[in-house]
Amino acid sequence: MKKFHFRLQRLLELESKRSEAARRQLALALRRLENAKDVEFSTRKELERVTSQLQRGFAAKKITPFELKLRQDALHIMEKKLSECHELVRREEQHCEKARQFMIEQRRRVVTFERMRERELETWNKSRERWDANVLDEFAARRHQIRMQGAARS
C-alpha cells in the first residue's frame, strides 16, 4: 500500500508560513507600542520636571517675566508633544489589536488544516489496517489451500 500523503500539504505549509508572518507582525507591533509608551512616559516625566521647576522658580520669584514666557511656551510645546504621544500610543494599540486578530485568524486556518490532516491520516490508517488484514487473510487462505492440496496428494 502507498505511504500516507496529505493532499492539502502545500496549503498547510502556506498557511503555516502566513501564520508565522502574522506572529512576527504582531511582535513588531507590540515592540512599536512599547516604544511609543516609553516615549510618552519620558515626555510626561519631562513635562512634570519642567512644570515643577517653573513653579519653584515662580514661587521664589527668581524668574523674570521674559523667562516665564519662554518656559510657558516650552510647556505648551511639551503638552502638544505629549498629546501627540497619546495619539501615537492609541494608534499603535489599534494596530496591535488588528495584528492580534489577524494572527488569531491565521492560526485558526492552520489548525483547521491540521485537523483535516489528522482525519485523513486516521482514515488512511483504517484503510491500511483493512488492507493488511486482507493480505493476511489471502496469505492464510493460500497456505491452507497448499496444505490441502499436499494432503490430497498423499
Give the helix/strand layout.
Layout: H1 9-59, H2 65-153
Helix pairs in contact: 1-2
Task: Give an account of the 3D structure.
- With 154 residues, the protein is an all-alpha fold.
- 91% of the residues lie in helices and 0% in strands.
- It contains 2 helices and no strands.
- Helix 1 packs antiparallel against helix 2.
- The longest helix is centred in the last third of the chain and has 89 residues.
- The protein is rod-shaped and about 130 Å long.
- The two termini are 38 Å apart.
Order of helices and strands: HH
- Report the total helices: 2
Name the structural class: mainly alpha
Strand content: under 5%
Radius of gyration: 36 Å
Round the mean pLDDT to the nearest integer and report it: 90
Globally, the shape reads rod-shaped
Termini gap: 38 Å
